[in-house]
Amino acid sequence: MGRRGSASSSSSLESSNYPALSSRSSLYQHNRDLSTDLRLGLSIATSSQGNPSTPSVSESDWPPIKPFLKETLAAEENECNSATFFVKVYMEGIPIGRKLDLLAHDGYHNLIRTLDHMFNTTIIWAEMDGEHSEQYHVLTYEDKEGDWLMVGDVPWEMFLSSVRRLKITRADI
Amino acid sequence: MLRMARSLPEEVLEHVFSFIHSDKDRNAISMVCKSWYEIERWCRRRIFVGNCYAVNPSMVIRRFPEVRSVELKGKPHFADFNLVPDGWGGYVYPWIAAMANAYPWLEEISLKRMVVTDETLELIAKSFKNFKVLVLSSCEGFSTDGLAAIAANCRNLRQLDLRESEVDDPSGHWLSHFPDSFTSLVSLNISCLGSEVNFSALEHLVGRCPNLRTLRLNRAVPLDRLANILRRAPQLVELGAGTYSAELRPDVFSSIAGAFSGCKELKSLSGFWDVVPGYLPAIYPICSSLTSLNLSYATIQSPDLVKLVSQCQSLQRLWVLDYIEDIGLEALAAFCKDLQELRVFPSEPFALEPNVSLTEQGLVSVSEGCLKLHSVLYFCRQMTNDALVTIARNCPKMTRFRLCIIEPRTPDYITLQPLDDGFGAIVEHCKDLRRLSLSGLLTDRVFEYIGTHAKKLEMLSVAFAGDSDLGLHHVLYGCENLRKLEIRDCPFGDKALLANAAKLETMRSLWMSSCSVSFGACKLLGQKMPRLNIEVIDERGPPDSRPESCPVEKLYIYRTLAGPRFDMPGFVWTMDEDSALRFS
């Protein structure tokens, strides 16, 4: 988070401001002795009040969220970071498969990008339409019931809960 | 009038007074004449002390001898955000000790931001024979041992609510201390407990309390236990689920769904840690009767949230993470026409870039669609003056408006101007506004607007705003009903404070941290204002080890009849008449 330095100008209540204050309020008149006291009795220079202390923003006190919520969010983030779900990925024609952590991806787009890279091809999945070249590959997955389906039809979370493994096959089949 | 007062017997007056419940009205009654004061003080049953150091227990007991219900608040609000160092104070034991002697028939104790010990809980458990209600909100200092004492001894307990308290809970067995004969529980909130409670003890307790209406479970209660609990308490009106996550299995799903459908009275849901979206449809059947939904811990993404809220047509209160995004708030605006209160919390408060698409537009949509909206707490990363003006115009009945733009001093992202005019519109149009929190780039002008228009404002929170003392002066001078003012990291110094010292006696409290109030000014205030406690909180060491012109770290000023307190830790100093001498 970009922490800004103390940017405000000095808070000088110059004498030119005083008339604005004093002309308004009898309350101010009544309390005027205090600021007079201040000026006479303690001789505090107005300039020394100029700079606000450097903003003491730390993650422990800003933004203003209660500790219970902060802990819960931190815990959930940690869980997300440490959980893994590796599945096997085979490309047709290549006997040796790969393994991929699905939880390291936050959705289909991310997953496809990784697979494109991993297998050096262009993957076709449910969101792509139009004519496809025979050079491309289709991404399918095996679900809990043993059926092979095209990747991308169901919401990501539902996909995560039912996928068993992935297969990349040639598009001309 | 005098003749009438003498001719009405005491019993009649007392009976009439028994219909008056609000503190304000009761206080007004007691000021009519001496005999009304006397009659009223003997029949006041509830007292509320907004600052436990404003008065001492013996004063309260002396004036009100027959109290049945006490509510006390301790630390200032900014303690919620770690701004008040540990050990500052707020100890409730002296109050309980005094009341144990004076109020043997005390039934209710509600505490907020106070330090409660096991010893205190044990004293409560054995001193009040008809004890019914214990609410510990954001309290700390006690463990499940203290709770075990309450469970074991309070035969008529109706409500045990630990909301957001920090409890040392080594053992989940305290629940088993409720005897088998105990059946009076109406409300139980243990959502803040970190460790497991004994599940069979919990199920048995729930099963034998037929009047149980509110049950807020903690995260450690897994989803498969929830169905059992719900089946034993189909009369529940308010439920806090525990962890809402399990492997997706049809048998578990139908068990949960069936249990929820059986709860025909459910109006309020909360909890829902670690949500597996596949289980959300289990609550769809009860959505249409929900009036309150607290999903602040639920990491549900926007599409599922949209599906959920669009079925909650009776919703009045929604607390949710910013995963709801603008699109979810549009759905809220379209389907939840009874919405009164909205709170949106940040899912990644420390991230540099936004992780979700939640902007000012979401709040604008809700203000357009939900005409009853009057209470808002909104965390976001961008705002415009135009959006605020639109919101102000759409919601003239707004009573609580708290906006937190996460990055301090963020301007209107389109015009790059300060947000003075936007907040100005809020205070101008929302004439009933009682609570306001500011954020973003703000100059003294916003305070001028506030002082001019916010005549009903009772609580104001300010951070990283303003240019000079003039800002503070506008607020102190103009806000006639101001009770609580809390300020951090603003360039406010001595002048406005000293010029408005008398105002401070009309308020409950003022908090200023990382501002520019000098030690000298604090001393002066302490000298001149004997009915205020001027507490300088400074962890750098004694303030007199630095020049008088040096600003204090933190300052807490509150009116009091009890004089300086004696339970201060080493980093808190009270300025009083003698302090000028003591510190020179």
UniProtKB/TrEMBL annotation, chain B:
Keyword Magnesium: no
Protein name per its UniProtKB record: F-box domain-containing protein
Domain F-box: 8-49
UniProt keyword Hydrolase, yes or no: no
InterPro entries the record matches: COI1_F-box, F-box-like_dom_sf, F-box_dom, Leu-rich_rpt, Leu-rich_rpt_Cys-con_subtyp, LRR_dom_sf, Transp_inhibit
Organism: Hevea brasiliensis (Para rubber tree)
Keywords carried by this UniProt record: Auxin signaling pathway
SUPFAM superfamilies named in the record: F-box domain, RNI-like
Pfam families: F-box_5, LRR_6, Transp_inhibit
Organism domain of life: Eukaryota
